[in-house]
Amino acid sequence: MKTILHKSNTRGHANHGWLDSHHTFSFANYYNPERLHFGALRVLNDDTVEAGEGFGKHPHDNMEIISIPLEGDLEHKDSMGNVAVIKEGDVQVMSAGTGIFHSEYNKNKDRRVKFLQIWVFPNQKSVTPHYDQISIRDIEKANEFYQILSPNKDDQGVWIHQDAWFHLGKFDAGKTASYALKNPVNGVYAFVLEGNVQIEDQKLALRDGMGLWDISEIQFISETSSRVLLMEVPMIK
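Above: the chain's sequence. Below: its structure in token form.
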């Protein structure tokens, strides 16, 4: 087993007033040559957008972009004609492929929106752009990891152009769980959304991240009530 630990206070940070963003991996003006990506996981941004503010129309291409709201409502518009509001309990994916433009704004004028923006390198380029959005309310399970993303259109959750699987878990204090990798040559990046946990004897707190590879199954203990995102991705160079 190989591991890498990223404590929350070691992340890159940018506060633009309207946007407060923490970067687990190099992004925009934050550059760390030792934190370029974890396998196919390229970006893990922890964003807070002030009331009524947001990202104006901007382009993307050849990237799988996943948004997971943690609090509030985020309004999305794109050049494919999609207009949607995503909120806590939703997962959104956008395969940028040959190129898209989109904007994201805090839908509310009286409170902030918090969300994760995640970029994954695709396993094929110049695909037709694709958009999907689901509510996880009907698939979430207590005290176990449940799938929210996969490479398969007919599988549970949203899908992307990569051999990647994302799982969420919400646990009571003292609960244990395990996660068996779908592909043993992949790695898993764990990100703590709430509480304190232990993964393979490593203690993790709020917004800590940990990557593990050369391992087939991960053992997990929830030391307090907790919520954790697991991202299984190919370990590309």
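The domain at 145-234 is CATH 2.60.120.10 (Jelly Rolls).
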